[in-house]
Amino acid sequence: MDAVLVTVLLVVAVVVIAVGAFTAMYNKFARQRNTIEESWRQIDVELQRRHDLIGNLVEVSRAAARFEQDTLARVVQARGRAVAAHGAGPAAQGQAEQQLNGALASFFAVAEQYPTLTANQNFRYLQEQMVECEDRIAAGRRFYNGNVRAFNTRFDTFPSSLVASAGKFGKKEYYEVDDPGVRAAPALHGAFDLLNEPVTPTPPLGQPMIQHGTMPENPPQTPPAPPLQ
């Protein structure tokens, strides 16, 4: 009788431990999933703000005389695809943002040729806001991908993989771009510094140009003073 009771107690203890372990792993999966979804919503908010800033940049740039309309058209089209990708998931959003990054790189390269545009206060303000937005997106992307990595690792390991299958959890998508050339957001800091460099004055005809810290090869000779009478 005592042996039967001990066996029953052992079985009950094993069942309780198994149920407790299953519940703990399930709850951890649920918390990780919610953290991933929340971190993605933060990225999505910043992406929407970024798209609004890009739209404003395009409108300000339209006022620049003879600004290349093909460049603006590519930015507008890429922005439209990125806006349409909202809700399609991190992978699809990453591909759309990759194309938008490429269009923005061309846009800022062309903008360097328009001093009147880069001197515009609205353009400069939007440029600063873009830099801050890109920084927040980069930080959010690192946080999101770190959570996805931890979640997917547990999904692939035993025994948590059994809990993931039983709880109908699925792997999460990373938010990244495939092209290493645009993996980082466009760098706007110092993009127009060349336009603000001081211009070296052109010397009169027949005189050599003197640069700071150098001497001309044939410096002009000072005529000798006349002898005292």
Concise structural overview:
InterPro entries: LemA-like_dom_sf (IPR023353), MamQ_LemA (IPR007156). This protein has helices at 2-62, 69-84, 90-111, 115-118, 121-156, 160-166.
Topology overview:
Elements: H1 2-62, H2 69-84, H3 90-111, H4 115-118, H5 121-156, H6 160-166
Helix pairs in contact: 1-2, 1-5, 2-3
Keywords: Membrane, Transmembrane, Transmembrane helix
Protein name: LemA family protein
Region (Disordered): 200-229
Q: What would the keywords be for this entry?
A:
single chain, mainly alpha, disordered C terminus, 229 residues, transmembrane helix, de novo design (two linked rop proteins)
Would you kindly provide a written description of the structure presented here, covering whatever features stand out?
This protein is an all-alpha fold. It has a single domain, classed as LemA-like domain (de novo design (two linked rop proteins), Up-down Bundle), CATH 1.20.1440. 64% of the residues lie in helices and 0% in strands. The protein has 6 helices and no strands. The protein has helices at residues 2-62, 69-84, 90-111, 115-118, 121-156, 160-166. Helix 1 (2-62) runs antiparallel to helix 2, helix 1 (2-62) runs antiparallel to helix 5 and helix 2 (69-84) runs antiparallel to helix 3 (90-111). The protein is rod-shaped. The termini are far apart. Residues 217-229 have a biased composition (Pro residues). This is LemA family protein. It is a single-pass membrane protein. InterPro entries: LemA-like_dom_sf, MamQ_LemA. Residues 200-229 are annotated as: Disordered.
